[in-house]
Amino acid sequence: DPLGGGLFLCTAYTAGYVAWLHVVRNVGGIWAYPIFYKLDFAGRVKFIGVIVAAMYVIFFAQHFLHQLVHGGEVEESSVKKQKQTGKVNKGKKGKSRKAD
């Protein structure tokens, strides 16, 4: 499922980035973004929550637009097609080889 895989990757990246912000703060003693100096813990949680919510809105908007433009069709890769059909593929030097 492209939506589930993309959503997982987006969430994992965001969680890693937020964790890295806190590592930099704990190790280096500085915040990567000056606004964090003005916010207390609850404020930072709310701020990061709003940013994450915006990221999800953008993610689902791009997914919707992609479905609208491309109609939800996912083109099979040529390798997958070759495996299914067993067609011979020409290598770089013109040698015939059967698709893996």
Descriptive account of the structure:
Helix 1 (2-28) packs antiparallel against helix 3. With 100 residues, the protein is mostly helical. 69% of the residues lie in helices and 6% in strands. The chain has helices at residues 2-28, 35-38, 41-70, 78-85; strands at 88-90, 96-98. Strands 1-2 form a two-stranded antiparallel sheet. It is elongated and about 60 Å long. A hairpin with a 5-residue loop joins strand 1 and strand 2. The longest helix is centred in the middle third of the chain and has 30 residues, at 41-70.
List keywords for this structure.
two-stranded antiparallel ribbon, mainly alpha, elongated, about 5% strand, 4 helices
Overall number of strands: 2
What is the overall shape?
A: elongated
List SSEs in N-to-C order: HHHHEE
Rg is 22 Å
* Classification by helices and strands: mainly alpha
Mean pLDDT: 82
For the record, give the distance between the C-alpha atoms at the N and C termini, rounded to a whole number. 24 Å
Q: How much helix, percentage-wise, in residues? A: 55-70%
Please give the count of helices.
4
Share of residues in strands: 5-15%
The biggest sheet, with number of strands, parallel, antiparallel or mixed sense and barrel status, is:
2 strands, antiparallel
Order of strands across the widest beta sheet?
1-2
Uncertain residue ranges: none
